[in-house]
Design goal:
160 residues, mainly alpha, elongated
Length: 160
């Protein structure tokens, strides 16, 4: 559910910024605006929210993933989410190579998470709400693909 709230905030931020800048839009500017909101909200705010969930609601989060409660994995995952949350928010201040490093790191983290979730579906039949379904496909696979594609396009247009 919160994924869709953050996704809506991302879309709203992009639309408002695109409308405000509509007279001065280029392909590069559009990519920069979309990447900015993806990194700030989808990486940054979502990472901070996931940190809070894994720290303060760890049993509920574990159950919604279909995993046992009380495992120290929650603290480790919380810290990884905190790290990416901080990096995503810092993308407001730092640009270029920082965006690239944040996007690549985030993609590695989420592709790894997707691998674990898919393996759990195959080996353990775990189809819990946050292990399988829209969250897996949109967040753990779709979001990093979108960020990486936009980063590649950003550098391609910048090289011209």
């Amino acid at each position: 559910m919160f994924f869709f709230i953050f996704l809506t905030l991302t879309a709203a931020g992009c639309l408002i910024s695109l409308l405000i800048n509509r007279k001065h839009l280029s392909k590069q500017k559009v990519i920069d605006i979309v990447l900015f909101y993806l990194l700030l909200i989808q990486v940054g705010l979502t990472g901070l929210w996931a940190f809070i969930g894994h720290i303060f609601m760890s049993d509920h989060v574990a159950q919604s993933i279909g995993w046992a409660t009380g495992s120290p994995f929650q603290l480790e995952v919380a810290m990884a989410n905190l790290a990416f949350g901080v990096l995503g928010v810092l993308c407001v201040v730092f640009k270029d190579g920082f965006w690239l490093a944040t996007g690549i790191g985030y993609a590695v983290f989420l592709f790894g998470a997707a691998f674990v979730h898919i393996r759990e579906m195959i080996t353990a039949g775990n189809y819990a709400v946050y292990n399988a379904g829209p969250f897996l496909y949109l967040n753990d696979i779709g979001m990093p693909v979108l960020i990486l594609v936009l980063l590649a396009m950003k550098w391609r247009f910048k090289a011209r």
